[in-house]
Every structure is written in structure tokens, then in C-alpha cells.
Amino acid sequence: MEIEFFTYDCTGCGKCVRHCPKGALKMVNNGTCRFVNIADRNVCIGCRKCEKLCPAKAIRILLNQY
Questions:
Q1: What is the DSSP letter of 16?
Q2: How many CB atoms lie within 10 A of CB 24?
Q3: What is the pLDDT of residues 11-50, one digit of tens each?
Q4: Which of 4, 17, 41, 50 could form a disulfide with 60 if both were Cys (CB 3.0 to 4.6 A apart)?
Q5: Are 51 and 60 in contact, with CB atoms under 8 Å apart?
């Protein structure tokens, strides 16, 4: 599984962080803006809640298909 972030599109709303059932995401404040980033890639279960809830479509979960 791969998690792609489009940080320039992120509005910093935090919906993805609040709704992640495993706490895999975090908000980062670089002094100018807030954007989403990965807190712990190993705990992500691929539920795609973050992707579905993001109003800016700033996250994409790519599930490996074999």
C-alpha cells in the first residue's frame, strides 16, 4: 500500500486525522500553513476513510493488487 499526499492541495481541515481509526496521520504546521502527513505508515490499514473524507482530494491510498 502506498499513501500519496498532495500537500499543496491540503486545506488543513484535519478531517483525515480525526477520522483515521488507527492514528496513522498527523497535521504538520510549517509556520505558514497546516497540512497532512504520515504519523506512522505501519499502522495504516488501508480503509481509505481519509481519502473519502478529504474535501480537497489531497490524499490518495493506492492498494497493491497482485
A1: H
A2: 20
A3: 999 999 999 999 999 999 988 889 999 889 899 999 999 9
A4: 4
A5: yes
List beta partners, residue 28. 35
Rounded to two decimals, the pTM is 0.85
Q: What's the pLDDT score for residue 65?
A: 61
- CA 63 to chain CA centroid, Å, is 14
CB 8, CB 37: distance < 8 Å: no
H or E segment at 52? helix 49-53
DSSP state of 45: -
CA pseudo-torsion sign 48, 24, 60, 12: positive
- Higher pLDDT: 63 or 44? It is 44
